[in-house]
Amino acid sequence: MRTSPRRPLILKRRKLSLPAEDAAASQRAVTKSETDGRCDRASIEQHAIDADSDPQKFPAGIKIINHPSMPNTQVVFVPKHANVQNIIAALTAKGKECGSTGPNKFILISGGGSLRQACPPGAQEQADTETSIGGGGFGKAVNDSNMCVSRKLVDVKMGDGMLLHTAANITPNHKPKPEEENSTPALTPCPLDESLTNIQWLGKMSSDGLGSCTMRQELEDKENQPPVPQSLKQVEEDVGSLPCGSSFTSWQESIAERPPYSYMAMIQFAINSTDRKRMTLKEIYTWIEDHFPYFKHVAKPGWKNSIRHNLSLHDMFVRETSANGKISFWTIHPDANRCLTLDQVFKPMDQNPLLQVLPYDPQQKRILPELQKCAPAGSGVKSESLGTSSSTERKMKLLLPRVNSYFVPVHFPLSQQFLQQPSGKMPLSSSPSSSASTADLTKSKHVQIVPKPILQGASTSTYLPLESTKENAVVVSEEAPSAVVKDEEEDASLLSSLKENTSYTSLKPPAWRKHDVQMSTLESSQSLSYVSVKEENHLTAKRDCQFTVLRDDVPLSTWKEERTLTAAKSPARKLSDMQVIRRRKSSSRRKQHLVIPCAEEPLLVFPDCNNSDSGLVSDFSFLQETHAPDHPTDLSSAQDTCPFKTPIKEKLIKLPVSSTPSKPVGTTPQASGSEPWRVTSLNKEGSLPDFSPVRLPPGTTLTPFKDSLDLLGFSSPPFHDVPLFESPQQLLNSKSPDMTSGPFTSSPTLEPHSAKRCSKELPIGNLTNRSLTEGLVLDTMNDSLSKILLDISFTGLDEDDRFDGDNVSWSQLIPELR
DNA sequence: TCTATTGTTTAGGTGA
DNA sequence: TCACCTAAACAATAGA
Ligand SMILES: [Mg+2]
């Protein structure tokens, strides 16, 4: 039935001959479940029974009663021994009874009682109250009369903050009147043929009842075996095992709901959830299963195949092996890693008004996960997806629009401190003479600039404006470190890293407060370094940086910072020991030759300004190491080293990355001996290789820049109308009017974030400008890519006595310019 | 040798 | 057309 993964799973309602079930047995079952002493079940049921002294009984002792307080809601008590068929039969029968006017929400309560195992007594009491009365947890049930989705979920508020997703609706788009609730079943037409049961969590289950977990696991090992449903109890246990006190999205709570993330996104989430930004395949499996019970309980085992497929297919996922070659770690290519984590994709809507206007991606039934945030723990914020069939119960607000823009973190090797604040706080104006208040600038200066260019054939490193409008543009290109340090400790730390994968760091409540982030030069270097500074803090990394403010090809300034690697804390360790072992393609099926660390890859130095620069290349280039190529082997195989080989991109840009006949190699002219992928990573539209799980539907334009894309051309000098900033202050005081009206202007907030090894993200110590982080999730890799927004903050310009307003010079800001 | 796991690649389908 | 999903073939590898 489910012919497409995008198609919601719908159980066709069938006429079921409800097997007569011994009422006594049913009652026994229920009673037994009550006497299991699991938290508040008895209380719940008792209360429910009190509210409805005549619960309807269905096969296997399933009882359905009206919710004591919630209209259109019924409580379904599922005895332990009831199987899925029983539940379906009961719901079907109930739905048939009530017809279109019947309750459209059902709260399923399993008789297993294991749900409450983890609940402390106090919490149980609370749960009892909330659940039975229906005011707390039940009250959160979404009851959107306008919702067009066919599924509604009812949360059962658990004692410790957990939410149990248990219910599904029966009648979509129908909000029965209260007086219709108890209508005689036989008297009303039954619309359930189309709708019953969009009960995904049931639908995924096979008809052969509830299999044992063990059996399921055995079969699950065979990836091509159909999934075996788990018992409700097991499911509930797993659900209950989710961390308490955290805010969960429905797919995190429910085994029924498939997470609205692509595999690629989930893999990124998984990998980025670790400090080292790497995971073994098994760890990825585990992480996904832990965070998305759907995959643990419902999804076919073939999802693992898909994971592997994605890992292999997408070039952003790079496999590295331990020094001994026995362990393969999957990492995200530093150029592609935006450090997407699960906690970044949702944020409380009430804390970011901007999000409320953010569009829903019509091309994705699933909400753009990367553009969403979830309510923080305990906030009680229930959200609902923006519009749509994805219809998660909670209100999901897009974090950022799927616009043709994204922020480019700019890493300044400044001795001055950085201060970043939400751009929305920034009274940036379109010109230095604007009304930007000094007071606002006192704390932070933001510059959001630079259109993201789409240029065909662009091949250089600097950003090009998409338009020759009046926008001020700052072009910043920076070399970012991209080395992956490997050493023998990898293996030793494997176990620990395995443990950390299950942490729920991503579930921490988003911090939507401003942070004045400061960093020293050293901190900057460390945090910016792709090497495992945190872990390998004996490394001190400097890197070449190029900072270019362009106007008509005139570089305002550039600097370079020499990057060195030293073994400060571990002198005994030689650099060679820390070489990245990255596989490259090989003839082997388990291909990918071992490659040298990125840090030692040939440096590609782009011209500071080049009309043909796409900016996209810069996006890569500034992330590259600038070491001299001390590994000729890597040089010789520059073509082969392109890790990005998404077929589409390859087809379009002929990236010489393929090791297969279907992926032509070497069709792209070598660009000055540099790694071609760094300079020719444009598809026909000039987009970046797609590292992003976020997709922007063609034609989507949320910023005014889009329309000016066609203004770009190779014949036009970049930043034709871009003023040249004489000073940082001027730069900071200037802002494109478009930006002020853009969707980003009010959103960014700061949140502590580990940013190492993340591209397009400005790590500042352990803190990262939230705006940058969020900006990273924007997909700029597709056709609609139109803009790059620079988010630059200069902290301390006002605090520092050395700086005197507009008198601040670049040389002051950048010591290298002196 | 067998099996399981892991990794790569191709192919086909679906929805927007 | 594209992104994404799913399935599958195939191979390398590790371990029993
Ligand atoms: Mg890959």
From TrEMBL:
Keywords on record: Activator, Cell cycle, DNA damage, DNA repair, DNA-binding, Nucleus, Transcription, Transcription regulation
Ranges of compositional bias, category Polar residues: 657-673, 737-749
One Pfam family in the UniProt entry: Forkhead
Cited PROSITE patterns: FORK_HEAD_1, FORK_HEAD_2, FORK_HEAD_3
Region (Disordered): 169-189, 421-443, 657-677, 737-756
DNA-binding region: 258-351
Broad class of where this protein is predominantly found: nucleus
Localization per Swiss-Prot or TrEMBL: Nucleus
CC terms in the record's Gene Ontology section: nucleus
InterPro entries: FH_FOXM1, Fork_head_dom, FOXM1, TF_fork_head_CS_1, TF_fork_head_CS_2, WH-like_DNA-bd_sf, WH_DNA-bd_sf
Function: Transcription factor regulating the expression of cell cycle genes essential for DNA replication and mitosis. Plays a role in the control of cell proliferation. Also plays a role in DNA break repair, participating in the DNA damage checkpoint response. Promotes transcription of PHB2.
Protein name (database record): Forkhead box protein M1
